[in-house]
Write a structure and sequence with these properties.
about 475 residues; mainly beta; 27 strands; disordered N terminus
């Protein structure tokens, strides 16, 4: 990805207003967004890498003042049982699948059933995620592996009912119909990847209404040909419509990528969803691109690509920073434009290596901009903790409004944080940084590790997976 400094503008027709980014999940219906910290490598009841998710319920004081819940396959009413390497929480997304007004949690369990994988839907409702759930398996049971490796929820036919898209490692994307009930998952279809003679693999999924027609569209990325020598990336695009999704060639402006799909939202507030594609290995320490939606789909509205050396970005890029290793989209400063939080987990601070940092790049009428950008790490005043070698602060990020003030908080994972004496380097912890009028605020920052749940396992990267 080449680090451009300007936006390429293209003429597009006006679209209906689009949300700034994915709405915060409200599992218990109290009006406050909730946060999920997934730890797929967690030990559960002595079973290694069974996996669990920690739920932090929002409140008027954000998640710092809310309830906490730990959910695994050992929890009451959750389908299945903890087994070694199930990796419950390997991926997740949220949405109201049964249309009851409560957000539901869709959890990928890619190691279940000897790595064939399942997807588990946990129902929201009064009291939160305590109402059980159901599981989905690949429509090609016995043939696919790692089903549930990534999941995304969207309304791909515009009828107000949501679908679940997921993938299996061997080049398959599965898309559910709508009509979920608490006892039944709708039938799934497998989407043709149109690889012709290439053996395509899928590694990421993303969804948004990129063409402004009222139906969500689906993006996939991964390896273009797993039997080739170069293992180049690719992007697949399925346009949503009243009769379902239709494969279309993505606009030329959309770059090929393997794992760079990192979120969607309306960064320039023109009514089209925009997609964020990152390249953490780009020259100069990594780059982040916003590819604007338009009448012809994602990227047809032009693009802006920024790096740490772009005007206004308060940092200096160095090779290996991994700027863009994670990203998430949401309105942090409450101005109606979606902003992009960017993790740079390999960035050094105070003479130490891979301490990590999180940046905030602002949205505006002109699109993504370095003006007003911020960078914070554990050496920033007010941020709990101390910057240490290999903390990897920013290994995952998520933007969600947890206190209902219209300004989203930024959730930051540090997969390498040491918590217990004798740990190697990857116990893992998470931080919640408040959204303010000026952007990310360190005042009132909140951090927690597995200690908050009475857990004592080591080296499992607590909270390492954050859905977008």
């Amino acid at each position: 990805m080449r680090a451009l400094r300007t936006k390429v503008l293209m003429a597009v027709a006006a679209a209906a207003p689009a949300p700034a980014a994915k709405a915060a999940a409200d599992f218990d219906g109290d009006g406050y967004g909730d946060v999920v910290l997934a730890t797929p490598d967690a030990t559960v009841n002595g079973v290694r890498k069974a996996g669990h998710v920690a739920v932090l319920y929002g409140s008027a004081d954000g998640v710092a003042g809310g309830r906490r819940q730990l959910v695994s396959q050992a929890s009451a009413k959750v389908p299945g049982a903890p087994e070694e390497r199930d990796r419950f929480g390997g991926a997740y997304d949220t949405g109201d699948l049964d249309g009851d007004g409560y957000a539901d949690l869709v959890v990928g369990v890619p190691g279940e059933n000897d790595e064939r994988g399942i997807v588990t839907v946990l129902w929201g409702g009064r009291g939160g995620l305590v109402h059980g759930g159901l599981s989905m398996t690949s429509p090609r049971t016995g043939l696919d592996v790692h089903y549930g490796g990534s999941v995304v929820v969207g309304d791909f036919d515009g009828d107000g009912r949501q679908h679940v898209a997921t993938h299996s490692y061997w080049g398959a994307v599965s898309l559910s119909g709508d009509g979920f009930t608490r006892t039944r998952a709708p039938r799934q279809q497998r989407l043709n990847l149109h690889g012709e003679d290439a053996f395509r693999l899928v590694e990421r999924l993303e969804a948004g209404d990129y063409d402004g027609d009222g139906d969500d569209d689906l993006l996939a990325s991964g390896i273009d040909n797993a039997e080739g020598d170069d293992l180049d990336g690719w992007v697949g695009y399925w346009k949503g419509g009243r009769t379902g999704v239709t494969f279309a060639r993505p606009p030329a402006a959309l770059p090929a990528t393997r794992i760079g799909l990192e979120g969607s939202g309306d960064v320039n507030k023109d009514g089209y969803a925009d997609v964020v594609i990152t390249d953490a290995a780009a020259p100069g320490g990594g780059a982040v691109g916003v590819y604007y939606g338009g009448g012809r789909g994602p990227g047809s509205g032009g693009a802006t690509v920024l790096d740490q050396n772009s005007p206004g970005v308060p940092d200096e890029g160095e090779e290996g920073d991994a700027f863009g290793a994670s990203a998430s989209v949401g309105d942090v400063d409450g101005d109606g434009y979606a902003d992009v939080a960017v993790g740079a987990p390999a960035k050094g601070a105070d003479g130490r290596t891979a301490t990590g940092a999180v940046h905030l790049l602002k949205g505006s009428a002109a699109g993504l901009t370095g003006t007003g950008a911020q960078v914070l790490d554990q050496s920033t005043a007010g941020v709990p903790g101390t910057a240490e070698d290999d903390d990897r602060f920013g290994s995952a990020v998520q933007v969600r409004d947890t206190n209902g003030d219209g300004r989203a908080e930024v959730v930051v994972a540090a997969s390498g944080e040491s918590v217990f004496p004798g740990a190697r380097w990857n116990d893992g912890s998470a931080w919640v940084l408040r959204g303010t009028k000026g952007g990310i605020g360190a005042a009132g920052a909140y951090s927690l590790s597995e200690r908050a749940f009475g857990l004592t396992y080591r080296n499992k990267r607590f909270g390492s997976v954050l859905g977008r």
